[in-house]
Design a protein that fits this description.
Bound molecules: cobalamin, iron/sulfur cluster
Helix content: 25-40%
Structural class: alpha/beta
Strand content: 5-15%
Number of helices: 7
Largest sheet: 4 strands, mixed
Number of domains: 2
Strand order of the largest sheet: 1-2-3-4
């Protein structure tokens, strides 16, 4: 349902502003190179795709855009680590490779603790947090279970999670829902009474 919509939006943006740079990411993308190339070739509204963990590839792309003065033509010359794109000049996909997963997740700035989410809380935001990434299990139907990339579980530090929850607890409206996006909920956050903290947040 949302896949056709995302293509519609990127194509619509391109129809209004042909020079706009469009970027997509997330798991709903083929895993083998032949299908990835076909995907990009068939969806020319998407300039760049960042597959797997997105933060580092996205920063690499932003840096490339800055270096090339936001010129789509120049941006699509050469390899950008972690980024995939279709080159009409080469008539082929240019694959930036799969970057290593981020081991120390705390290096990712928190959108809550850097206050960029503040204004959204005024509009009854349902916030989401993540305490860890990855899953050691191998369910074959699952995006994370069907290969090695996600096997290792990397965690945010307990302090980071506590700070985010504290911040959210002070801002959230009573009727909001807190989403937790972990594949394995809090498996590694040992030694911390997360349940108690949630109960305290709700009752305060
Ligand atoms: C929370 C969640 C939901 C919530 C979403 C709530 C919300 N308001 O956002 C709900 C319950 C609605 C939901 C529904 C569905 N979900 Co869901 N969901 C998740 C879950 C648990 C967390 C997603 C998340 O936010 N992660 C946190 C972020 C930080 O990580 P991330 O999404 O992996 O994103 C990283 C990269 O992918 C990349 N990235 C992602 N997007 C973008 C965008 C750009 C521009 C860039 C540059 C990078 C980038 O960078 C991010 C940081 O590294 C994942 C499993 C998981 N643990 O990740 C499944 C998951 C995404 N869901 C999945 C599925 C199948 C569905 C449903 C189709 C289920 C169904 N049959 O109805 C629906 C689809 C809903 C829809 N319309 O799209 C699959 C997708 C598999 C696939 N190959 O696409 C996953 C991966 C579960 C799995 N392990 O298989 N889901
Ligand atoms: S995230 Fe859940 S469904 Fe996927 S491999 Fe792990 S345990 Fe299985």
């Amino acid at each position: 349902m949302t896949a056709p919509l995302r293509h519609y939006f990127s194509e619509y943006a391109k129809s209004l502003y042909p020079d706009v740079v469009t970027v997509m990411g997330g798991p709903n993308f083929p895993k083998d190179n032949i299908k990835q190339q076909a995907f990009l070739k068939n969806h020319l509204g998407i300039d760049f795709y960042i597959f797997e963990e997105g933060e580092v590839g996205f920063v690499n792309l932003i840096n490339k855009c800055i270096d090339t003065n936001l010129s789509i033509y120049d941006c699509k010359i050469g390899v950008i680590p972690g980024v995939l794109y279709y080159s009409s000049i080469l008539n082929s996909m240019v694959h930036g490779g799969v970057l290593e997963r981020i081991k120390d997740l705390d290096i990712i700035p928190s959108p809550y603790l850097t206050n960029i989410m503040d204004k959204f809380f005024d509009k009854n935001l349902n916030p989401t947090i993540q305490t860890n990434r990855g899953c050691p299990f191998g369910c074959t139907f699952c995006h994370e279970g069907d290969r090695d990339y996600f096997k290792k579980v990397n965690s945010f530090s307990t302090q980071r999670v506590v700070d985010e929850l504290d911040y959210i607890g002070g801002k959230i409206k009573r009727e909001s829902v807190l989403g937790i996006t972990d594949s394995n909920f809090l498996e590694l956050l040992s030694g911390f009474n997360f349940e108690k903290m949630l109960v305290d947040m709700i009752s305060h």
